[in-house]
């Protein structure tokens, strides 16, 4: 009888694994690319900046009838974290969620210190808190905690609770109730994604049974419970992270695997990324399935962006040579560098728009067509002081390892976000 029961359980498990649809490549953001052909020449048109805008637009995504974007001043370094909403009309810009906590004590960071990603997952908007106020509010015991803010399916976020701008109420995915997910033992939360039905966050954290603010501080992956209200530590990289502080950064799915960038505080990390490479039937985050990979000559590359497109994964990095690099892989293992002309400057993002693949760089917008790279539009500039002298500086200049100028397609048009004044720009054909 016991043998029959075991065989029945195994059969049901195998059936469930077989019925689970494989993950689509990418990071859950909308796949709409717009219709028609790319313009041969275009220009960047300033759309505007919202009230309360900060310096950097770190990410853009379309949801419902609006374009959402997240901003920061100095990620993980100074207070400033808001989600904005844009839709053409008399009042085009609105604040969707404000985590600046105005008026609260600033010691330890009075507000969030950067929203770096906004994704659309399972019909909701997902925004990790890169560096939470005061290292967390002590919702759970652990010495520190991080947060992920999740909207309802209509794109509404739960506001901070009054008085004193406290953490929004608990997230409940089953009831479509927006709120905050709590990540015990997390110092920083850089990204969030769905993989094999699981909600996963990439963090810098405290391992279980370790004391916060002392000892080991690895990068980590946290996995959510069924309601989404708690995301618990599942694995760390490196396993014993003594004498340094690591973070796992931005994530992407590709060919059934989960890829994440690595960032370590002292710049001694020899690898470039980690890959969670579990058998297809496994829907769990297990340390035995994680491996570190070195792709670059010097190692220690900072991941700025991932982009999956038509069976190819693209990877944008900022490396020890002080430059950005664009690489691509078709199988997830063998990487090739995609060369852009020197006059393009640093590359910041990549997306498919209309009938082409386009790259945003510090100098403008470029079409990628095999080995051919063609300029489309010049980047707008702003006058700034550089080495004591006034100079024209690109709105898309790369000067932060956590935030680079993003691209997104909204209502068939291509938008980009500034790194200088928090403004939004649209590409207009000439």
Task: Describe this entry's structure for a reader.
There is one protein chain. The chain has 430 residues and is mainly beta. Helix content is 4%, strand content 43%. The chain has one helix at 2-19, and strands at 42-48, 56-63, 66-72, 82-86, 93-98, 119-121, 124-128, 145-150, 179-184, 186-195, 198-205, 219-224, 231-237, 246-254, 257-264, 273-276, 290-293, 302-309, 312-318, 324-329, 335-337, 347-353, 356-361, 364-369, 372-378, 381-386, 389-394, 407-410, 413-417, 424-429. The strands form 8 sheets. It has a 4-stranded antiparallel sheet with strand order 1-30-29-28, with no helix packed on it. Strands 2-3-4-5 form a 4-stranded antiparallel sheet, with no helix packed on it. A 4-stranded antiparallel sheet has the order 6-7-8-9, with no helix packed on it. A hairpin with a 6-residue loop joins strand 29 (413-417) and strand 30.
What key attributes describe this structure?
430 residues; mainly beta; 4-stranded antiparallel beta sheet; 30 strands
Our measurement of the CA-to-CA distance between the termini, rounded to an integer number of angstroms, reads: 75 Å
Q: Give the biggest beta sheet.
A: 4 strands, antiparallel
Q: State the oligomer.
A: single chain
Q: What is the 3D form? A: globular
Instruction: Please report the total strand number as a whole number.
Output: 30
Structural class: mainly beta
Low-confidence stretches: 1-18
Number of helices: 1
What is the average of the pLDDT values?
A: 93
Helical content stands at under 10%
Strand content: 35-45%
What's the gyration radius in Å? 21 Å
- Write out the strand line-up for the largest beta sheet, numbering strands in chain order: 1-30-29-28
